[in-house]
Amino acid sequence: MIKRGLRYVDELSGALKTQLALAYRAKDLLGYGLRQKLKEGYTAKDFRADLLAALVVGVVALPLSMALAIACDVPPQHGLYTAIIAGVLCALLGGTQFQVTGPTAAFVVILVPIVHKYGLSGLLVAGMMAGVMLLAMGLARMGRLMQFVPHPVTTGFTMGIAVVIAVLQLKDVLGVKLPRTEGTFEYLGALIDAAPNANPIDIGIAVVTILLLLLIPKLTQKVPAPLIALTLVSIGVVLLGHVIPGFEATTIGDRFQSTVGGEVVRGIPPLPPMPVLPWSFESGTGTLSFQMIRELLPAAFAIAMLGAIESLMAAVVADGMSGSKHDPNAELIALGIANIVVPFFGGIAATGALARTATNIKAGARSPIAAALHSVFVLASTIALAPLVSYLPMAALAGLLIIVARNMSEARHFTRLLRVAPGTDVMVMVTCFVLTVAFDMVIAVTFGVMLAALLFMRRMAVLTRANLQTVTDTKIEVPSGVRVYELAGPLFFGAAKTAMEALHVAGGQDHTMILVMEHVPTIDATGLVALESVLDRLYRSKIKVIFAGLNPEVAEIFERAGIKREPGKLAYAPDVDTAISMAIVHAARISRPAIDKPSPPPPAAAA
Q: Which of 164, 214, 242, 547 reaches 20 to 30 Å from 153, CA-CA?
């Protein structure tokens, strides 16, 4: 009992040490971007520049946040709450200096099926679970691993997401109501059935909005195009509604209503985000059950993976535009914390927004304070401008999201890759695109990550080789009976079997095999087992093995595995020349008994 108790105490103390180490790691990474700027110095001039940039970004974020929430089939204020809470937390705790965080178009494809199946509560819980995963990824320092996701995978996702987002806006463009559907094709079927009831006024509003959003940037870059376009369209709709009898357009106030203080408010409530339990929101059961967590786990994984990829890609682009340097692990930790906290204020999943980040840099931001101030602007606008928001036409917001989808699709880049990329890359890209459009992002992300891993393993397996070498640049000639193989590349489970199969011995006169491993950076358990199998076969054939040029990491793995020096069977050499010299000595040693063996005495003379 005492021993068991002491073992339990040791295990508990080990777990506590691990938790403390993770907490210290998080503390060391949090606020990397802000700390870097404060080290450089932050002046009143910097604050003025950040304030002006925040106003510009806030103007862009305000309609986008509402439009993206509506695209996810939730009330628009939930998009605003996301921009407010996540924007502040990621700005102050994240690993970049200019990243703007909030709801993004990429999440729409994931979040819509969750809302349809589990309601708003399920959506908030899935975002919270994704936050836990992102936090774990940051603490495990997996930020650098995101760069190993192949470009064809992200390109296929992006193009597929853009197509789905544009298609989902067609119901608001046509001004029709659709039943809840599952999948793009079912949605299109319902849209075709409802098309005869389309509202020409809504169609006209969408067309005018799209034309303005395309034209305004060519005329001026000083004022964000969404601000001008949506303001002009909203004013035009109000005026025409008073002038032309029967002129009716669907607005946010018509579609969404909420109750504040016992009174029904059209549009969004003029309130800041208030604390709420995510699992008890509206249609929720009031409790967080294991069954809910289990059912939402695949969706949460898709949110976490897509959020990490998009946020870190935006951070890389921001570094290129500003000349700064971000910490990917700090960014993942901050993003995880934000997605854990946001659902408790009614916010949906958030990640780094590339368009808003680029706007922030172009507007002259100097530090993460700009992104934090943009959230303050959105908060003030939510409270002060709530009555005016109800006049925004739904078709205008749909037109805005169609332009967002067009910009994020990078259609020219997609078609160019179709022409010039290798066949395997084209197959991967098209597969991810089709899965995103035909099914949903949970399936697409899961399959895409698996496909990325398999593609990576295949390419690494091609790089890993074991070739019979004719050594010409050594000082010592390779004698007969000695074979020299060079292994190059990581010996991991995707390549070990192929590499080890090349280690064959031709001819019965071979007595020594030299394995040159100076270009093997690492070896995993599968590679180790495959190598041990080869060693066992060579031992049985009475062939000595000499490892040459092991790097420290591989040498340490060999030592832990018990692959040690053994006279006549296994040896280590620092380089090929030394290994050949050892092979010559070994050859002399095994041939000497036959040479030095005394001659048998002559037969005795016959008596």
A: 214
**Residues 256, 76: contact at Cβ < 8 Å?**
yes
pLDDT (mean) for 590-606? 53
Task: Answer whether residue 593 shows pLDDT above 60.
Answer: no
pLDDT at residue 11, as a whole number: 45
Burial class (CB in 10 A: 0-12, 13-18, 19+), 241: middle
pLDDT value at residue 205 = 94
* Average pLDDT of the residues in 212-237: 89
Q: What is the mean pLDDT of residues 507-514?
A: 77
Indicate if the pLDDT at residue 316 is higher than 50.
Answer: yes
User: What single-letter amino acid sits at 587?
Assistant: A
How many CB atoms are located within 10 Å of the residue 13 CB? 10
- pTM exceeding the 0.85 threshold for the entire prediction: no
* The two structure tokens encoding residue 524: 């995993």
What are the Cα distances from residue 439, in Å, to 131, 179, 192, 436, 447?
Answer: 24, 18, 19, 6, 11
Cα(492)–Cα(583) distance, integer angstroms: 28
Q: Residues 250, 252, 253, 255: what is their CA dihedral angle, to the nearest 10 degrees? A: 70
> How far is it, in rounded angstroms, from Cα 82 to Cα 102?
6
CA-to-CA dists, residue 448 to 234, 311, 453, 456, angstroms: 41, 18, 9, 12
Of 3.30.565.10, 1.10.10.10, 3.30.750.24, 3.60.130.10, the CATH number of 465-593 is 3.30.750.24
How do 482-488 and 512-519 pair as beta strands?
Answer: parallel
Give domain limits for the chain: 44-194+272-280+290-389+424-456, 465-593
